[in-house]
Protein 1
Amino acid sequence: MADTVPSEPQDRPRRSDATRAAILGAARDRFAADGYERATIRAIARDAGIDPSMVMRYYGNKAGLFAAASEIDLRLPDLTAVPREQLGEQLVRHFLDRWERDEVLTGMVRVAVTNEAGAERLRGVFAEQIKPALAAVCPVPEETASRAALIGSQLVGMGLLRYILFLPPAVSLPREEVVAWLAPTVQRYLTADHP
């Protein structure tokens, strides 16, 4: 009996981590497929293979679960280390990489276009990650927000068409052609003088 007691605390964190990971994975899939409103704690728990009470234990409610499941780290590069004339290209390439490798990002954008909680989460990503990264290289600090919005219109717009709606012309464009088309526009939005 004494041998089993010490091993329980060591097992608990692993089970807890695995349970949380299963819940978050199921939640991301369910929110992406059904949207915030139609996704239910019961369906997410079923997908994760656990009891719904466990979801509530770890995340409190659906809003708390959504916030945890929609944690997005864009892993933006340090733009101050990028040559000024390559900023547009660097951002386009980076975002194409994120769209292609980050199912959380695509899932949360799906939710954001139909649900206020998702939209609010993406506005938070914009304010917490994108705006500060661009502020470091924006020639006119007072214009950072508007320039970031213009850049976002290109990068999120292409991501939406290419990776979420799968619009055939956007999907069929070779990656290097997407970069060639978008990079000069993003570069202009970021570095050009105010019109």
Note: Residues 4-69 form a domain with the Arc Repressor Mutant, subunit A fold (CATH 1.10.10.60).
Protein 2
Amino acid sequence: MLTDSDIPRETIQAYLETCYRVHGDTPTTLKIGETSPTLATLHKAHHTDCSAFITACNPFSQNASDEFNAAKQQALANELKELGLTFVDGIGQHPSNSWPGETSFLVLGLALEAAKTLGTRYGQNAIVWSGADAKPQLVLLR
């Protein structure tokens, strides 16, 4: 995974270590490669077998202003609503580095290709996607 990407190794490592926190009525923290029983419950409750954790903040991991990030995140929310998708607020935050947490959404029922398309449209290096096993995986987009 690390050798075929234009994303710096240290950035990928930070993504792998990040805690992807889902808010809402069923809060949980997703970690790459760790099955989440709570996510499995969310999938079942929403009659789906997949989800994506995605943000529009800080395209290509370039720190942007709060105003820019808020506008991009609102545009993503509007697009998700137009697509009729169910989503829950969240935040992705590394447990120890100084990178600010990024507001995000857990989008229920978002197929992998559609998630990759959205991530690419919003300038993201990667997304987090989970299939029927409810095990979040890092999906690099460049």
Note: The chain has a mean pLDDT of 95.
Protein 3
Amino acid sequence: MTTKPAESRRSDATKAAILDAARERFATDGYERATIRAIARDANIDPSMVMRYYGNKEGLFAAASRIDVRIPELGAMPSKHIGAALVAHFLDRWEGDDVLTGMLRVGATNDAGAERMRTVFAEQLGAMTAGVCPDPAEAPRRAALVASQILGMALARYVLRFPPAVSMSREEVIAWLAPTVQRYLTAEQP
């Protein structure tokens, strides 16, 4: 049996509505408090549709938390600018996508969220780091150090909203973090 184009479009629209509602609900309520019923209500659909497409809350969370941090190609730029480019990129991503803030909240409080963040870290930040650091064998450690700076600032600025972190301009954040990120990525091992 083939799916009719109208049914396929309706199915895609329903899935998109579910994922949008799930991302918002997970970001607002966290993993534990978010419910299939609340997500379905937010998407204006029956809860059975969420179950039909995603199976359970874990499946829905996995689908809703697929994140592409869209790390820019850094290998082509002069290595002395990599730290600033990466910090600027992450500031743009955090300020333009509430899903990342929600994932940081969930990742800090839930095993499934933490595992999802580890996967994003390994697949995206780890791969980029291996391409720019002096010894690719050191890439996982260096990526962890970079993540500590980027996620630490994201936590302080976008989740906990520490006034000094929030009040810093984009340029100030880059000026403070870029040299450290640069060192983590390109300096010789201490």
Note: The CA atoms of residues 91 and 170 lie 7 Å apart.
Protein 4
Amino acid sequence: MDILDPLLHQPLRTQLAAFLAGAGEASFSELKRNLQVSDGNLDSHLKKLIAADYVGLRRHDGPGRAQTCYSLTPTGLDALNRYVQALHRLLPLDAGASAAPADGVLAR
């Protein structure tokens, strides 16, 4: 049986990793706005992803305040891909079954 990455198995951290995988890079305010989370909640989860080397940060000066941008590291992208693959293996679908039935329950 596949073991799901405990770091990514938390919904907000999965969303953060997926968002950064698609966006490439995002500022704190962009992440906060798109994921609709509080400053404290976002900061807490980002710190965990940074500590695991799943997310990297880049500070840059521009007009006004300095800004920090976040991106998924190669380690983070690999972890996200493995996590998604593990989910696929845990949720096998029949070849003829719909991936998203109207009632929201996966067919077996």
Note: Residues 11-89 form a domain with the Arc Repressor Mutant, subunit A fold (CATH 1.10.10.10).
